[in-house]
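Exercise 3.2. Students should predict the tertiary structure of the chain below and write it as structure tokens, then compare their answer with the key that follows.

Predict this chain's 3D structure.
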Amino acid sequence: MSNNRRDFLKLSGLAGMGLVGAGMSGFTQAELDNVLKQSRKKHDQRFNMSGYAAPKLDVVRVGFIGLGMRGPGHVERMSKIQGVEIKGICDLLPENVDKVKEKLKGTPHKPETYSGSAYAWKKMVDRDDLDLIFILTPWDWHVPMAVYAMEAGKHVAIEVPAAKTLEECWQLVETSERTKKHCMMMENCCYDFFEMMTLNMARDGFFGDVIHGEGAYLHDLLGLNFNKEGYQDMWRLKENGTRNGNLYATHGLGPICQIMDINRGDQMDYLTSLSSNDFMMKRHAQELAEEDDFFASYANMDFRGNMNTTVVKTKKGKSIMIQHDVTSPRPYSRIHLVSGTKGIARKWPKEGVATGHRWFTDEQMNELKEKYTPEITKKVGEMAKKIGGHGGMDFMMTWRLVDCLRNGLPLDQDVYDAALWSAISPLSEWSVANRATSIDVPDFTGGAWKTNAPVSITLEGGGTTKVRV
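Answer key:
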């Protein structure tokens, strides 16, 4: 085994815990006890990062870590935004770095490259000419990289989920508060067009008092997770074989939290979570192992339940349901349901709004879109659709992040959102392991949620960043 590979396994914890190919799923008792301990932790806030406006950056100098699945698209979209300099790109595999550098030819960006070592990223982060680090790696690396970058004086943007454990969530919060560096989890679904419209509708009182919200990640990834050419070192399949709960909560959860002003007027109180058995993954691993010895170790794993349902109660008495299923053969859905005292909206299987027993007509929906499409969508929405990234929401997220940094504005998502939305996974794992027993959700804001201002949905003070098309 190479030193780089050994370092990776050591950091990920898979080798040290004996979980690779061990036919083992879920927490040890010590880990369960620690989740309960961390869920009860009381936070003495050192500095409130909610609403914090860091000093303006005329030019945002960016470095990217991780150029496998998501990284190349992030680099390409960032390269089109003016007021940005891509200074460094990094990946464990040199060929990934070379491909991305080749794509940047003809642009103003000429980044330094870093690769070939599990810790090559540290050399890039240590540079003194970077302002923002994008972290686009397997989940085990998110927090070590983010903490290191913030300690080095850089803002960070992390792919979802930002953290895997409650301890890691607390590390992000405490480091961001101490360094006064932004730590944003890049929950792109908060920038999808219908989700942003319903946020604007909620702010205008269209739904009345919001009572209930639903979100999900229902996406058939069975083939991709078992594809040897998919995720590097089969890391995502290993996540599914060593944990049992809602492993990917944030896509459906983030937009609902913004609509309910979670961390900014309301807070999660407790949750309960239940998983079905696994009816598909182990069977598929065994079928593959009959033809290919590569899958023999996976055939011995006890995979997480195919469907997880997690339910949250908020301090103000609202409820949230989040589901996770990445194996069943069903159409993609994040649900996105908002239900209030005056009306309801739901995105899948078809965008719909109702204030009574009948869904609005197409003509009424067009009128709603005209009235409630927010400023950011009106300004860059059509351009975002052309540039792409999940229909344009990825580009809107990146453009908005850069525009906030360049204009000294608070970010739409802060470290408390990153920690709270990511915390659903370990909390759900604890509940599943304890027969759906409820568990308290920690308050990462230290009580500041009671007075924190809601997320801004205007471009006031910003909107000045231009795009190369």
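Discussion points: Residues 1-25 have pLDDT under 50 and may be disordered. The first strand starts at residue 60 and ends at 65.
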